[in-house]
Design a protein that fits this description.
elongated, Pectate Lyase C-like, about 10% helix, mainly beta, 20-stranded mixed sheet, Jelly Rolls, 2 domains, 6-stranded mixed sheet, about 375 residues
Amino acid sequence: MKKILIIFLLAAFGVAQGQTFSTLLHQKTNDFNVLDYGAVSDDGVSDVTAINNAIDAAYNLYNYSFGGGTVYIPVGVYLIDDTIHLRSNVTIRMERNTLLYTEEYGGAVFVADPTVTHTYIHGGILFSAENTMTGISIRANALGQYMQESGFHDMTIQGCLTGINLYSDNSGFINSNYFDNIWIEDFVNGVVAYEGASSAGMSGNNFNNLTLQCDDATLYGLKDIDLSYSTFTGLFIWDFPVTGTAAITIRNGSRNGFYGGNWSSTGFTDIGQRNVFITGNFISTGFQNTGNIVAGTGITAAMLWENILYTGSSAIDITANPQIAPGYNGQRITIVGSSDTNTLTLDDGSGLLLSGQCVLGVGDAITLIFNKAFNYWIEVSKSNN
């Protein structure tokens, strides 16, 4: 009885000072309810300003670098017609069935730019029936811009042009972020992760339990993946349509791991470096892209990998010695050509023992094994030559 009376008196005191119970609560818990900033559920009026104002208030709670409060969006239907700006050290917490909906909005809902760290989004449904919005957009395209150590958890993104879009360039970077338990449904592009020529990196990002439920509008599951040292654990791409372009395309992505899950092989391309795929249907150590082979240098030790893909911009004849750097005893490599124009030619020479000249065009392959005693790469098999 005493505890109930104390709470009642505190609430009454707050009201007497012109405070609502919610404002009194956030002073004690650092929670900021969007309803206190003007959001109204299901009234047909935009709630973006109210949500952004609540985020700003949470961001300004403390002055030191790890301060910040929690923005709470309760169960309801909230109209989104502009960008919700993410800020450092702010958590946005939604109930699982809190709905942020767009009518014909063609922009991004959650946007992280220019510099964001330690922000977390939990729960909620982002919904559009027009395939025009982007659910999560992270851009770091200028010096000093970045997003890192942030996370998106337990979300649904439905009816979008792109579910998750990452872009970095001009010394910006997007590193060490988490995307967990996210369902993307009825989309054109599920995940796009594109680096410009001068990006500082998109490394160490982790996607866990990512489910992409395709529909007839779907073109790509994962598109232009330029991530590096990142993981996809439990990736499922369901019902990829016959009209789709590609379930997965990896452009410059390197040393990524894809573990578990299931996806279509339609349009699959990987011209990155050393990506590993281990699923119930497919095990691969991935290719090492050797597009930078030059005639006077050959294949260096840094290029050696179980599967090597030549994607050079011209035809190369590596007759200069050494053609292929020494490996460890018994090391096996397979070199594959990717073009009938930009071919890779191997000729017998010091350190290389072949049954004849090898010209690798598209789909052609040669497998070699290294004999340490004689310091030779010896041909094991050759196809389509």
